[in-house]
Amino acid sequence: MLYNSSLFSQMFSLLSLFFIISLSIVVLKNSRRLVNGLFFLLTIILDLWIFGSFMMISSTYDNQIVFWDRFVYAAVVFWPSLQYHFSLAVTYTDRQRRNLLAFAYTFSFIFLFLSQTDLFVQGIFHYAWGAHTKAQFLHNFFIGAFIFYAVLFFYNLIKKYKSEMSALEKKRLTYYIIGFLVLDVIGGTAFLPAYSIPFYPIFLATPLIFSLVITYAIVYFGLMDIKLIIRRSLVYFFSVISLLVPAYIVISYVYIFHPFYSAPAFVILFFISITLFPRTKGYFYRFSNKYLFSSLYDFNELIYNLNNRLRASLDIKQIFESTIDILLQAFHSQGIAVLYYEEKTGYWTILYNVGFNFDSNKIDLQYATMRKLLIAGKPLDLGRLRNTPPLADKRVLTYLKKINAEILVPVNVEQKKLSSLLIFGPKESEEAYNHNDIRVLESIASEIGISLENALLYRSVTKFNLKLRNEIVKATKKLKEQNESLKQLDKAKDEFIGIASHQLRTPLTGIRWLAELLLKNKEHNLNDKQLNFLRQLNESNQKMIRLVSDLLDVSHIETGRKFDINKDYFYIGDAISEVLKENVFLISTKKLKIINKIPSDLNVWGDREKIKQVWQNLISNATKYSHNNSEIELSFKKDREKQLIFCVRDYGIGIPAEQHDKIFTKFFRANNASLQDGEGTGLGLYIAREIIRAHTGEVWFESVPQKGTRFYFSLPLLTVKKDKKITKITKKKTK
Amino acid sequence: MPSTPKKILIVEDDRILASALRAGLEEEGFEVVETHDGLEGLAAAKKYLPDLTLCDISMPKMDGLTMLEQIRQTTWGQYLTVMMLTNLNDKENISLALKNYAFRYFVKSDWDLSQIIQEIKKELKVK
Known about the structure:
The complex is a heterodimer. By secondary structure, chain A is an alpha+beta fold.
C-alpha cells in the first residue's frame, strides 16, 4: 500500500512538474509584459514546490525530508507577495498599492530566512501517504499572511470582474480565478500535515490542474497572447508525456517485480520511445490543429488567395463577396458583415451580412465616431476595448455590443479615407482574436482598400461614360429632330420652287410665243424701234425661262429625284451647234472666235437635252467671262477607249485659286464673276455637274486667273459594235 | 400651201397659249380646232379626226394623258398623231405618254413657237 500510494504520488507530482515547467517555459517566451513576467515567477515557485515535494516524498531519511521541506518553503514564502502583485498587475492597480506590495515583499524576504530556522518547522510528522515537518510558532504568521494575501488577491480579481465591460476580459479573469482558487485551496491542503493532520497529498496534482486551466484559457481566449507559442510546446510536451508515462509505469513494474531485468528493459523502452517520438509528435500536431487550433491559417496562403480573388473584380459587391468566404474559412467567425459608407446619406449600407442581426438595412454608426475608433486604419478589437475613446459616441459602441460585434476592421481608400467596415463576430470556438489575427485583418483590409479604390474609380469612370452616353443620345436626338425639321423645311422649299417654276413657265411661254408672233410683223405695222423693244422683251423673257428651268432642275436634284435621264445615241455636234446659235448674240458682241474641233457626226450615249444643257452652261460661262476678241476652243479626246473627255477652253478672267473648291456649290459665284456679270444665278455649274454625274461622268477644271479656264467633262464610251447598230436606228428615227 | 389644209387639234387649258398656238398655226395655213380640257379635246378629236393633236398634260376635267389613253382605246384614235406639249418634264409623265405612242414630247417653255411649227410641218410633210 505504501509503495503504491507513493508511486501514484510520485507520478502525480512528476506530471505536475512537467506541466508546470512547460508552462514556465512558454510564459518565459512571452514575458515582456509585467503580467506575464509575474506569472512566470509564480510558475517557477510552483516548479520548485512540486520538485521539492517530489523529492520529499521520495526521501527515506528524516534529515532529507527536512532539507527538501525547507527547500520548498524557501520558494513558497514568495507565493503570497507574487500572487498579490499579480492581482494588482492584472487589474492595473499596482501603482496605487505600492505600500502593501512593498510590505508583502519584505515579509517574503524575512520569511525566506526565518523558514530555514527551527522556529518555523521542526520535527517530522509521518502519516499514511508521506511525511512533513511540524509547524512551529512562526509558521502561523506565514499561514496568516498567506491567507491574507490570497483573500486580497481574489478580492482584487472579483472586483475587477464585476467592473469589467469586455466579455473577453471577464472570461480571462474567470480562468485566473479558477486556476488560483485550485492552487490556493487545494494546494493549501499541503499545509495540513504540518499541523499533524494527515491528508492525502492531492495538492501534488494542483499545478497540473492549474496548468491545464491556464493553457485552455491561453488557447481559447488568447490569454497572454501566446497562443502560437503554446501550440508547438503542447505538441512536444504531449508527445513526450505520452511516451514517458507508459515507460515510467513499465519501468516501475519491472523494477518492483523483476529487478533483474530493469536495465535491459530500460534500454529497450528507450529505443522504442526514440522510434515512436516522431510519429507521436505528428499525431499530436494533427490533433492540436484539428481540435485546439481549428481556425489557424496560413497567412501567406490567405493573402495569396485573397489577392487572386480581388484582382479578378472591379465590382464593389463582388470584391466583398469573394473575400468573405475566404475570411470565414480562416477565422470561423459567428458573423461577418460588410458595411459600406454612403457619403450622400451618411448611413452605412450593409453590403454583406452573415450572422448579425442588424435592425435595418442602413445603419447609423456615426462616421466621425467610427473614424475616431479606427485610428490609423488599425482593426479594433471591441473585446479588448477597455475605455471608451474620448469623444467617441457610446451609443455606437452599445449598438455594436448589442449585435455581438467583436472586431471592426476599417477599409480605407484614397489616403486613409474610411470607406467600408468589416465587422467580425466572435469565433465559433469562442476563441479570442489574437494579435496575429488582427495583423492579418489589417493587411487584408489594405488589400481590399486598394481593390475598392480601383472599383470606385472604375465605377466613376463608368458613371461618367454613362452620363456622357446619355448626353450624346440626348444631343443626337435633338440634332435628329432639328435635322428632321430642317429636312422638312428644305423639302417644303424645294416643293415651293418646283410648283412656282411650273406655274411660272406657262405665262413665260405665253410671253415668249406672243412676242414671237409680234416679231414676225406680218402686218408690217411695227416700226424698228418697236421691234427692237420686242426683241429685248423676248430676250429678258428667255433669261427668265432659263432661270426657272435651272431652279426646277435644282429642286429636282434636291428632292432626291435627280434627273430623269432619257438616254439615247445622238450627234453631240448638232447639240453644240444649237447651243452656239443660241449664244450667237453675245459671241458676236464680244467678237469671240469659236474654234470647234468636235466633229458634227460624233455620236454619244446620253440624254440629248441634258447634255445640251451642260454645253449651254459651259459655253455661256466661257462667253460671259472671256475677254473681248479672244478665242473659245471646244475639243474632245478619247481616254483609253473608255470615255470621251470634252473640253471648253476660254482665255478669260479665270477663277481665283481660293474659290476653286466652291465653284460647283449651288448658288455660288466667284467674286470676279459677279463683277463681270451681275445676273448669274450660280446654278449652271452645279446643274452641269449633277447632269454629268447622272451619266456616270465627271466635271473638272483647270484655271489660271487672267489667263483663262479649261472646263472638262467626261462621258462613258460604249463599244463600237453596239454604237453602229443603234446609230442606224436613231438616224432612221430622226430623219 | 397644201391643197387641203391639215387639221390640227389644240388641247390646252391656258387660253393665251392656246390662242398663240392657234395664231401661229393658222398663219402657216393649218386648220385649227382649239379646246381647253381633256373631255372637250376627246370629243373634238372624235368629231374632226385631226391630222395632229397638240396636247397639254395638266388640265381641268380630264388630263392629257388620260385623254391620250382613251383615244388609243378607240378604233379611230389608234393611229392619231399626238404631240405632248407640256410643262411637266418628269420621267413618269414622259414614259406614260410614250407608252401611249405620243409622237413627240415638248417642254413648252424650251421651244419657240416657230420651232414647234417646224416640227409639226416636218411630221406632216408640209413645206
